[in-house]
Design a protein that fits this description.
heterodimer, A: mainly alpha, 3 domains, 12 helices, 72% helix, elongated, B: mainly alpha, Arc Repressor Mutant, subunit A, two-stranded antiparallel sheet, 5 helices, 2 strands, 65% helix
């Protein structure tokens, strides 16, 4: 049976470059025996001394790495920040982009909406994992190959802009306002210029026309009030708690009726459902309703948390 | 009161470079790994064995130490000795070390005044 020292030596030398192995083995064995003798000389029994000496030398892989001058890290400080920056940059848009394309392609080739959304999200997730893996692998190889890669050094030019209105750039405000206007315009558009047609070519509004006498004008008013809110917010220049409160009221005034109408199957035009057979399938209609409700609620909650956090930061 | 961990880290940082200096000084007389470990410890430079043994090999590769196998004793031992290059580097290191000490003293006295 091989001794602990033998096992320790073979575990260490396994990870040391071959040309120097023999010499390191002889020297290390000698050193270990010296250390054991130092302890037995002080009255310790041989077996305990051997154990303690090897424990003191520690993990053989770590010792071998020190002999080989090898780094015990996947990506070290030289490349870490570059790795982090590239990964963040790619993850902000690549998975979402590919996922959306796959989802749209799925919907265009006749998958049901639920299947298209599922495959879109699934693809986005896979892409995120792939991107992370390959970027990390590349940097881990660079770290080990050590080609003395001259990555651009940091200069003050890379400092991000800090503006007083950090949480409300004009771009953000414009984007939000445009989105709200677009959503408000969608309501009359879907009524008069819907893409869905009856067999005889007559257009079918997507939303129940009966709602024009009740909820649709309210929703439009709320959306337009949202545009005004964005302008006021920009004038104020930062999130304040009253602004958060108004935002919450507006968000709720839109989300609650939408969710309620959806949940009671009152939002979609019954003619539309009659026209398209896959909408008549109870399961399909249910999943569209559920997905829309969940999306609405998630956006609502996210929006409230986001404005709350920003108000807190500004205050 | 600062925690022991913080203190230990700072002491480690302070001591790190001095192991090389101490080894180069001690190896003006030839010595092998374990004997050097003992000598350094006796003189107030406690070094971990798993740091010192690889360090000796690295200094040898850098040409600061020469080595010779001694096979006359009970077991073969590799004896290291500070080379001429090692001596040159050592002098520069010692000069710098005393410069650091001097600057520090100056700083301390300057503040006391």
């Amino acid at each position: 049976m091989s001794s602990l020292t033998d096992r320790y030596l073979s575990a260490t030398l396994r990870a040391v470059p071959a040309p120097r192995r023999e010499e390191i083995a002889t020297e290390l064995r000698g050193s270990i025996e010296d250390m054991i003798e130092g302890r037995t000389g002080a009255g310790q029994d041989a077996a305990t001394a051997e154990r303690e000496v090897l424990n003191e030398l520690g993990n053989p892989d770590r010792l071998a790495a020190r002999y080989a001058d090898r780094r015990l890290q996947l990506i070290g400080p030289t490349y870490y920040l570059h790795w982090q920056r590239l990964l963040r940059l790619l993850l902000t848009f690549v998975p979402a982009l590919v996922g959306t394309l796959v989802g749209v392609a799925g919907a265009a080739t006749g998958d049901g909406p639920a299947a298209a959304i599922t495959s879109g999200f699934g693809t986005a997730f896979e892409v995120a994992i792939q991107v992370t893996f390959w970027v990390t692998l590349t940097f881990a190889i660079i770290e080990r190959a050590d080609p003395a890669l001259k990555l651009p050094a940091w200069t003050v030019d890379q400092l991000p802009e800090v503006s007083e209105k950090q949480d409300m750039t004009l771009t953000d405000i414009a984007a939000s306002a445009a989105f709200l206007l677009f959503a408000a315009a969608f309501l009359p558009w879907q009524h008069f210029w819907s893409w869905a047609r009856q067999v005889d070519g007559e257009r079918i509004p997507l939303l129940d026309p009966v709602l024009w006498r009740s909820w649709l004008p309210v929703l439009m008013a709320v959306l337009l009030a949202g545009v005004v809110f964005e302008l006021v917010k920009y004038r104020v220049g930062r999130w304040t708690w009253p602004l958060v409160a108004v935002k919450a009221v507006l968000d709720l005034a839109f989300s609650v009726p939408v969710v309620w109408l959806l949940a009671n199957d009152r939002l979609l035009n019954p003619d539309l459902i009659e026209r398209f057979s896959w909408l008549q399938d109870e399961g399909n209609l249910r999943s569209i309703t559920v997905i829309t409700i969940i999306t609405t609620v998630v956006i609502l909650v996210w929006d409230l948390i986001d404005s709350g956090v920003k108000a807190r930061r500004a205050g | 009161m600062v925690s022991d961990d913080i203190l230990r880290t700072h002491l480690q940082e302070l001591r790190r470079g001095t192991v090389v200096v101490a080894s180069l000084v001690a190896l003006r007389q030839p010595g092998y790994g374990y004997a050097l470990l003992q000598r350094l410890a006796d003189h107030g430079f406690p070094v971990d064995a798993n740091t010192l043994y690889p360090l000796l090999r690295r200094l040898e590769e850098q040409g600061l130490l020469t080595s010779e196998w001694n096979t006359e004793e009970r077991r073969p031992r590799k004896f290291y000795q500070t080379s001429d290059d090692g001596e040159t580097v050592l002098r520069l290191l010692l000069t710098d070390l005393s410069a650091v000490q001097k600057s520090l003293t100056g700083l301390i006295e300057g503040l006391d005044r």
